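Mods, move this if it's the wrong board.
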Amino acid sequence: MIPLICPIPTTLRAVMTMLDFITERVNSWDRLRMAEEPIFIYGMGNGAEKILKVFEQYHIPVAGFFASDDFVRGHSFKGHLVHTLGQIESLIDDFIVVLAFGAGYESIYERIKDIARRHTLIAPDVPVVGEGLFTYEYAMEHAREIQAVYDMLADERSRRTFADVLNFRISGDIKYLDRCTADREETHSLINFRQCRTYIDMGAYNGDTVLDFLRSCGGEYDRIIAIEPDERSFRKLQKTCDERHIEDITLINAAAWSEDTELEFSELSSRGSHLEGGTRGTKPVRAVKADSLAESADLIKLDVEGAEAQALKGAEKLIGGGASVVCALYHRAEDMFALPLMIHEMAPDARLYIRHKLYIPAWETNLYAVNQ
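Not the wrong board. Structure tokens:
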């Protein structure tokens, strides 16, 4: 049998000493590749397709697929009849479950934890956008950047969350996410919303984060600017604002970017809509930079499906001028270290916090750069 951990070169030992908070060294993919138990994928659709591509790369066999009882109904996926978990358990005692979808609701989150108590469950990390996998080797390649972010975080809770999320992304073990999950009260305590008179929401989706801002600031604000590129989501955003009679808000059907231009956009009418490089099935979309939208801002939220780095470049003047930032850290493999370093360069005095909201896999992990 091939050993899971190879001898470590001397030059790598110094890096490992640097990243002593990364305790997982066996990648989820290697663990699955070496497994003797049959592997069943829980879920269908885009997530399962991404995981299957990595399975092919690592030569990992799949025994079948299962879904929640309400979603089976004789479905097949990739040539396999989709079963229920109960059907598999009635035939096989010991098997591995690979989670292939996002779970952000308490009920499904608890269901997944219950399955993990009965079976080995792995939630492999695949990027939402872009290529590359966050493996142990990848972490070692970027050890200096990762350590730099860890050292600049403002509190111990952020450092623990940072470590837990990285260890999850390597191992696929959901225990790391479970123990670092923060509730709304904790995450919102990091920002003084009562001082946020001008709010820019980049990636406003259907207006849910606009409403969340209004609750947090108590309705006391001067101006809101909400940007959403997906046309159907933008119409939902308009409806949300109209139905609630939200005043002093500017809605812009555009993508967040580093400059004012036009880009190609993959429109999925969901949070999965994202910017593309002119590929098939895309359409032109207006793109804007935050620095063109306001002279100053108190808070900028960025959740733009993998375009965060470009959107931050387009907000450099506002961030350098004192705007606080809430930024998604989970779309690309490099986001966990590249985006905090970028914001730190723009606003060296900003206090950096990281929190993870209830979600499997490590989506809803956000950076809070507090300039107030």
